[in-house]
Specification:
Elements (H helix, E strand, L loop, with lengths): L2 H10 L4 E6 L1 H7 L14 H15 L4 E5 L3 H10 L5 E3 L11 H16 L3 E6 L6 H4 L4 E4 L5 H17 L4 E5 L5 H11 L4 E4 L5 H5 L10 H7 L10
Parallel strand pairs: 1-2, 1-7, 2-3, 4-5, 4-6, 6-7
Length: 235
């Protein structure tokens, strides 16, 4: 069973879990590098510390799937922080234009499992990504700054998501950059029965027709592939 199938199985069976990706930006922030990531988010000491803390916490949780970046030197760094990591494919939820049709079908099934879940669904992202709510039948949308919400509104975002989760077993989907990692930790501490999915840039092309990363297939191809879960009015 590949990691996409595993996450789909958890969702279909309403089993608490998390999928969290730690890529080059998180690596740079955790190592206190100067500069910004590809989204323009600055690496700060606070963000670096919180990312390290989140990795230690998240990797220790039951049914935690940790997306592994492709650079093996990065993996060595994370292993020094935690010796018990359930590594998963970094592209577990990302539809990669280079992958085979056979493997891509698992990702469509993953999206369908989210859309059809009876759990309350909350999506944390910036306003440009609101169309995900229609694609995945999301119940609540938490709007964040597209570049630097971690430094400017982290506490208020945590409280907003908690308010939506109160009394519910939820699926929380996040396209929230590097700050998504500590946010998942804080939410899981309060609501360990949740399902947490770090989607990152997975929906950028289908919602914005914009290639923010190099992996996405062309919009027309992606639109056709995702037809089974898209509203008829989707353009």
């Amino acid at each position: 069973m590949n990691s996409t199938e595993q996450l789909t199985w958890y969702i279909k069976n309403s089993i608490p879990c998390m999928f969290v990706k730690y890529g080059d930006g998180e690596f740079n922030a955790a190592n206190l590098y100067e500069g910004v990531n590809c989204d323009g988010t600055p690496y700060t000491k606070l963000l670096g510390a919180k990312i390290r803390e989140s990795f230690i916490y998240n990797s220790a949780q039951k049914n935690a799937m940790i997306g592994c970046w492709h650079d093996l030197s990065n993996v060595s760094f994370w292993k020094d922080l935690s010796s018990s990591v359930a590594w998963a494919d970094y592209h577990t939820i990302l539809i990669d234009g280079k992958e085979s049709t056979t493997y891509a079908k698992y990702k469509l099934e993953l999206y369908k499992s989210i859309k059809e879940s009876t759990r309350k669904k909350i999506y944390v992202s910036n306003s440009a990504m609101y169309r995900v709510c229609d694609m995945l039948s999301v119940d609540a949308f938490i709007d964040i700054d597209p570049v630097n919400w971690f430094e400017t509104e982290y506490d208020s975002v945590v409280e907003s998501v908690k308010a939506e989760m109160n009394g519910c077993d939820c699926i929380v989907i996040l396209s929230a950059g590097m700050g998504a990692k500590p946010l998942i930790s804080d939410l899981h501490k309060a609501f360990p029965s949740g399902i947490y999915i770090d989607a990152g840039s997975a929906f950028d092309m289908i919602c914005r027709r914009k290639a923010t990363r190099c992996y996405s297939p062309p919009y027309a191809e992606l639109r056709e592939f995702l037809t089974p879960i898209l509203p008829d009015s989707w353009v």
